[in-house]
Amino acid sequence: MSDSVSRRRFLVSAGAVLGVGPMLAACGGGGDVTAASCEGYAALDAAALQQRASLEYVDKSATPGQLCSNCRFYNAPAAGADCGGCQLFPGPVAPGGWCKSWVAMAA
Questions:
Q1: In whole angstroms, how large is the CA radius of gyration of the chain?
Q2: Axis-axis angle for helices 46-54, 2-26 (nearest 10)
Q3: How far apart are alpha carbons 55 and 31 in whole angstroms?
Q4: Is 60 a member of any domain?
Q5: Which of 61, 67, 88, 95 is the most exposed place for a label (fewest CB within 10 A)?
Q6: Is residue 20 in a domain?
């Protein structure tokens, strides 16, 4: 009985982390460049947020060497701006961010 309870807790916890975490991160949840310093999060509609979440975008990469700033899809920030953009989804993108579509820039 306790084995099935712990399995259930694990599945619920995993679902919460995998389902809610990326969505919150897509809304600007932390990192070196936060939503407060990136303009444009508030203007994103539900479809744009879902697109970001489906790619598991986060403002701070947990994968060494894989940052938005060294991804081939990253658009560098305009002069004086903290955040750039991405060719794959709308809205601001932190240079230190990451998503599952990361691909190294061509050398």
A1: 16
A2: 120
A3: 17
A4: yes
A5: 88
A6: yes
Write down how long the chain is. Answer: 107
* pLDDT score for 7: 52
Torsion sign, CA atoms 59, 64, 70, 74? negative
Domain-embedded: residue 101: no
Q: Which domain holds residue 44?
A: 2-86
Give the count of domains, the chain: 1
Q: How far apart are CA 48 and CA 91, in angstroms?
A: 8
Residue 62 lies in a domain: yes
Question: Helix, strand, coil proportions of the chain in percent (round to 5)?
Answer: 35, 10, 55
Predicted TM-score (pTM) of the model is 0.65
Q: How many angstroms from the chain centroid is the CA of residue 63? A: 12
Q: Which of 24, 19, 52 shows the shortest CA–CA distance to 11?
A: 19
Residues (pLDDT < 70) of the chain are 1-37
